[in-house]
DNA sequence: TTGTAGGCGTTATCAG
DNA sequence: CTGATAACGCCTACAA
């Protein structure tokens, strides 16, 4: 691997000059600039980012940790982050916490040891609360929570405004003429986002004088589509399928929808289904899912904007807790009565 | 940030000893080991991987470049690589070439400058053939092509055996009683994989005495689901929908299927659809797509195995060109006649 | 078992 | 405009 050393030998120039050429700093004689570029070409020189990171203050590295990448949802995070990184000259290190609190901690440590400029993380559970609290003191504002947050931990975050979402959903259902909803959830893992949504659903349906039933599914499956499918299959067999289902997730909603198709239960005539999020739903056939679009893109943008602001030293008046409002996306899976 | 320096100051030990403790090398007095760990704890010390990489020979870093992450397919690559990296103590840098040859080159350079131990890349087009040929000389066996390869470029690869796949598919169609197929393709971008498959389809249908029609779609759309949908919509309106469609891709197949659902064209009675790959198809409702499962997992495993072999210095008898055989996956979208 | 010193590829500072 | 030199944090002989 060629380095400044061989460039220096070849051109007779010093490290300082070479560095200036390569980084477009200071001013260098035209002739020497040329010499350096020639040497680079012939030596197949390539900068060493590790060394650069060590010598300067920033590694130009962003860390991203998500709970898993087994399904479609998280790709949006990468996709967005990747785009952002490219546009700002950062590189991306990626890992997942594999739905495990221990692994989450491991991966955080690895990211920090990698000297990331900022770590964007979708926390998995509240088990690492103490750990994150400690981190927040050590590296103030070098970590940003995405989509989920931990209560009493002073790490900036951007999350969906779940109370608002719940309100929108309930009001939508109400307007469609329904007076009872069933919220389909999984057993709680202590993370805020779904819990907040559920709270909101309960609160707002009370507010609107609607009956609200919570169904907590316990399942060993990972895939929420399958979980939804199995639940619905069971419910259809037992003839206890609710009239209006709000799934915690659009994956789960699609599972429910699939089962209905399979067993010839007509949607929305027999059962209305509302999802949350808009990932799988584009591929759902033949009907479009009625779902709440949480506007994830804008959530991500807020996160990177926050990072930018912090980088620019605007540490003072930075909004550290951001709640994103989304909007109902009209599909064809809710019946007007 | 705490470093060896502060640990040394605190413990009165030297760099060498600290290094030995932290890396479990040499032998260090029990008492001093303890001292070091205490210091680490109190100083919130964390190793600096950049420095480590610089001082040692390996960065313990793997690079992954895929053409895009806008859809489901590529997540499998990450997911697998991530798992592999974790198990072997590597980190992962991820980026996409954004379906652009220029960007592909950029990202490669960035990866190499990041001192990745190995770069796994799904080449986008053949435009960078010259570039890769040059790279192959500079960094022999530090690059591995995944899923696609470039002819006349001496970079090891693992790809799907498309000729075999074509044979399997054609034979399947034949056994189902059909004597004519239509292969749905996009305008060629010069990359090997689909082209090989198409060649195979042509070759094997000739071999089996079947009629074979190639439909080359030209579209500005990115999303193959939509491309397939639009094609089928058009074909349905013009009443020229083929009897048996082999889509280049399962995304496209799903698009076609969606359109059929939308316009009440019965599958497989009116049209049989075969996909390639098995990504979206799990979420397809209500029918499962009949598709060729290319066994992508095993393809990825072969790639990482290759890397491992190279790392272990088994440079001699390494299989550098690997073709993976997949298998037909029975769904419900092909009619038996 | 421990300490010393040179080196990895850069950047940055400060003379010249 | 250019050169010398000290960092950056860690590893690795080699010497003690």
Automatic annotation (TrEMBL), chains A, B:
Molecular functions per Gene Ontology: DNA binding
Domain HTH cro/C1-type: 5-46
InterPro entries: Cro/C1-type_HTH (IPR001387), HTH_LacI (IPR000843), LacI/GalR-like_sensor (IPR046335), Lambda_DNA-bd_dom_sf (IPR010982), Peripla_BP_I (IPR028082)
The keyword Plastid is annotated on this UniProt entry: no
SMART domains: HTH_LACI
Keywords: DNA-binding, Transcription, Transcription regulation
HTH lacI-type domain residues: 2-56
Name of a matching Pfam family: Peripla_BP_3
PANTHER family hit by this protein: HTH-TYPE TRANSCRIPTIONAL REGULATOR GALS, LACI-RELATED TRANSCRIPTIONAL REPRESSOR
Name of this chain's protein: LacI family DNA-binding transcriptional regulator
Organism for this UniProt entry: Laedolimicola intestinihominis
